[in-house]
Write a structure and sequence with these properties.
Helices cover 34% and strands 22% of the residues. With 451 residues, it is of the alpha/beta class. A hairpin with a 5-residue loop joins strand 4 and strand 5 (48-49). The longest helix has 21 residues, at 357-377. The model has no long low-confidence stretch (mean pLDDT 93).
Length: 451
């Protein structure tokens, strides 16, 4: 008798830089991991873009590898990847174009024409809960294909977001999931809870695959296989799932990295024009309910300014890794000061005003947290939120966490850590399809910060 095989779920987590495959056992422990990076290729305009063919081959290669291993019994497969990226598939499921980069310049006249046809940019953005972001509004990418490459558009059977393309590779089914449509795509009318009028007026609606919930699963396309295939999720929404399934009292999650995104799944109040101008938008949960979100480019700013401080004081940026908070320094810095809430404020200060790099770094964090608090407050509503969870890079920063706790005195502030939150979200959302145990309640480690 051989050893019993371990029941697992396979999750592909496709980031811009790293493409990962994880196998989780029924306790959500990682029992296998594989990582790949591919060289970017170019689209027809010479702009850098993801290599779709490498990605497709890599999915099949890594699946072959794990299916060959006797110790695992793969019960289900799911996918999560970055949003704002469309794959245009023809009748036989082949991509018709490169995977255009969401940072690609968008033709101004095209964007303007669309906005003006539907009440102007402010009105259009409010209805779709999408700040005008050019190619980052992925619906506008489809519009661009329709307008600029009509012959290609004609051959499109379905345009699907990247997570759903990955799922299609294994299930052979083309679907659209709510988390991908719901994220600054300019496709969804949040007030009426359906595609926006422009999507049907232009005929683009016919090119979008049928909508399913994010916890939907299909059978695999390969004869004789018994595992289930998830529909795939947009990564920001996926990272929220472990929190939604573990905590039922209203909370806000601040997911920190290059962007710091504050997510409030308990606020369905419509966006105002002011909020939109401050980079507020809606995301969507896997069940299709709105999540009010605000974005701040804080990780990027932190990197920029720590380099500036390091150069000025002639130290390496590694020095800032473990600076513990010094309250007297903080109090001295904010005494009689009105700290601005705009993110670039610290960049205008003369570093010669600070005694040493520790003081300058404390000042940077005071300014950064001031901007973060303003950004997070945009997602608050009349429904009282009792807890704030912070995950990602800043959750390990003592100064950031302590200052945040002091700013939100009436709430409990926690640093949350969970290895691979995005991948775990994609595994959890289809839990009942592969896992015979109850959902564990210790997936997220919390550390409480007192005001």
């Amino acid at each position: 008798m051989g050893k019993a095989r371990i029941p697992v779920v396979a999750v592909f987590d496709v980031g811009k830089t790293n493409k990962k495959l994880f196998l989780f056992d029924e306790h959500y422990k990682i029992v296998f991991e594989r990582s790949a990076r591919f060289l970017e290729t170019e689209d027809e305009d010479g702009d850098a873009c993801e290599n779709l063919e490498s990605l497709r081959l890599s999915v099949f290669d890594s699946l072959h590898e794990v299916f060959r291993r006797d110790e695992f019994d793969i019960k289900a497969i799911n996918f999560t990847s970055y949003g704002a990226s469309f794959v245009y598939l023809n009748e036989s499921g082949r991509p018709l174009t490169p995977l255009y980069n969401y940072l690609k310049d968008y033709p101004r006249d095209l964007e303007r024409a669309l906005h003006e046809a539907y009440g102007g940019v402010a009105e259009f953005s409010l209805q779709t809960a999408s700040p005008a972001l050019g190619s980052l509004n992925s619906g506008l990418q489809v519009y661009r294909i329709q307008q600029q490459q009509p012959d290609v558009f004609q051959q499109v059977k379905f345009a699907v977001h990247l997570p759903q393309y990955l799922s299609f590779l294994v299930s052979g089914q083309m679907y659209t999931d709510m988390t991908s449509i719901g994220c600054h795509t300019a496709l969804w009318d949040f007030e009426h809870n359906r595609y926006h009028q422009w999507v049907s007026d232009t005929g683009i609606a016919e090119k979008l695959a049928p909508i399913v919930r994010g916890d939907e699963v299909f059978s695999a396309a390969f004869p004789g296989s018994t595992y289930k295939v998830g529909v795939g999720l947009h990564d920001s929404s996926s990272a929220l799932i472990p929190y939604l399934l573990n905590f039922h009292e209203p909370f806000i999650l601040i997911s920190t990295g290059t962007w710091c995104i504050s997510l409030n799944p308990f606020n369905e109040e419509v966006l105002t024009k002011e909020e939109l101008e401050k980079d507020c938008l809606f995301y969507m949960t896997y069940a299709g309910t709105p999540v009010k979100a605000s974005r701040l480019f804080a990780g990027y700013e932190h990197e920029l300014q720590t380099k500036r401080i390091a150069e000025h004081f002639n130290v390496t940026t590694a020095r800032f890794k473990n600076v513990e908070i010094d309250w007297p320094t903080v109090d001295h810095l904010i005494e009689g000061q009105d700290i601005p809430v705009n993110l670039d404020a610290f960049g205008t200060l003369d570093l010669a005003a600070f005694a040493n790099y520790e003081e300058a770094y404390h000042a940077l964090m005071v300014y950064l947290v001031s901007a973060q608090v303003a950004s997070t407050r945009l997602t608050l509503s009349h429904k009282s939120v009792k807890r704030i969870f912070v995950d990602g890079g800043f959750s390990k920063n003592s100064i950031f966490m302590n200052l945040l706790a002091r700013s939100f005195k009436d709430m409990e502030v926690y640093a949350a850590s969970m290895a691979q939150a995005t991948a775990i979200g994609a595994a959890l959302v289809i839990h009942k399809e592969w896992n015979s145990l109850p959902i564990p309640n210790n997936i997220i480690e919390l550390r409480y910060y007192r005001a």
